[in-house]
Design brief:
The complex is a heterodimer of chains A (125) and B (189).
Chain A lengths: L6 H14 L4 H31 L2 H4 L1 H25 L8 H8 L5 H16 L1
Chain B lengths: L2 H24 L2 H19 L7 H30 L14 H4 L5 H4 L3 H20 L2 H12 L4 H8 L3 H22 L4
């Protein structure tokens, strides 16, 4: 070796020598097994990931679908609002005592409905 | 070529150099093979869908982190081993030697070279191996990433988590040490 060798060149040559150093059969076998294992793990993970990746950008690929999604969201909001409004109406309340009796099966359902109908009839007449 | 085939090709290309790096770092063949396998597994599990040109840097980061974790674990383990060594039974010396462990598989081109060239090359490699193994950790890391993995200074700095100036300094020192080492032994590339 000369005194004027470029350290960078020496580094590169040494690096190449190191990279080309032979492996034993056992090392080759172990590395190949590791590679196969890694590839198998990647393939096993891909299915759910691909499904999620498929959902990403769906609205971009389907602009009409995206519009319909917006309309469906509005309908859902209106339905929810209607449900809340109906739930807060006093007519829809069931008397707590009757509710308890119904849950305890003390009053037959038919008898309760008959009573309700009678009460409604009296109210009208 | 599918993404899986690309990944397989990439891992096949990188595994030998990765093993050399890990081997220099941990000085234990089984541990080095485990580290490379773990790094390949992590890359395949977490980054297989990333563009292929990002894989080399990602793989280097994963491997460097795995080596660092191994150092941490072995530090803790050695502390416990030293504490408990008095209780452990003496190790048997008659361990079996597997001939496959020492069988050298020469690449075809090298096997065709004259024996004196092969011997010269083997002695050069041995000298380089010895010198690199004796380098300080950061110098060795910078040298291997820069000259064996052929990363540029910026990539090496990113893989090591340091500045580009530090990489240049480490590489320069490592190269000068190597040149001196080879000169003393009368071998050269």
């Amino acid at each position: 070796m000369t005194q004027h060798i470029d350290p960078e060149d020496l580094g590169r040559q040494a690096g190449r020598e190191l990279a080309q150093a032979p492996l034993t059969l056992r090392q080759q076998t172990r590395l190949a097994a590791g590679r196969e294992k890694a590839l198998a793990a990647s393939a096993a993970q891909k299915a759910p990931v691909r499904l999620l990746a498929g959902l990403q950008g769906w609205s971009v690929r389907h602009p009409s679908g995206s519009r319909r999604l917006g309309q469906a969201a509005w309908v859902a909001i209106m339905l929810m609002a209607g449900l809340v409004w109906w739930h807060n109406q006093p007519d829809s309340f069931i008397d707590d005592d009757v509710d308890t009796q119904l849950l305890a099966d003390e009053v037959p359902m038919e008898a309760w409905l008959l009573d309700q109908a009678d009460m409604t009839g009296q109210g009208q007449s | 070529m599918t993404q899986a085939e690309h990944l397989s090709q990439f891992l096949a290309d990188v595994e030998r150099r990765a093993f050399r790096q890990a081997m220099f770092a941990v000085q234990n063949e089984d541990a080095a093979l485990d580290l490379v396998q773990d790094a390949m597994l992590k890359l395949a599990e977490n980054y297989a869908d990333r563009p292929a040109d990002e894989w080399p840097m990602l793989f280097q980061r994963i491997l460097q982190n795995a080596i660092r974790d191994h150092y941490r674990r072995s530090k803790v383990r050695s502390m416990w081993v030293s504490l408990l060594s008095a209780l452990a039974p003496a190790k048997e010396a008659d361990e079996e030697i597997d001939p496959l462990d020492t069988l050298q598989v020469e690449p075809a081109s090298e096997a065709l070279q004259p024996p004196d060239e092969q011997a010269e090359r083997a002695s050069l490699r041995r000298a380089i191996d010895e010198c690199i193994a004796k380098l300080p950790l950061r110098q060795r890391q910078a040298f291997l990433l820069r000259y064996m993995e052929e990363l540029d200074v910026a990539q090496t700095a990113a893989a090591m988590g340091c500045s580009e100036g530090s990489v240049k300094t480490h590489c320069s020192r490592a190269c000068h040490t190597l040149a001196e080492w080879l000169r003393e032994r009368g071998v050269g590339p």
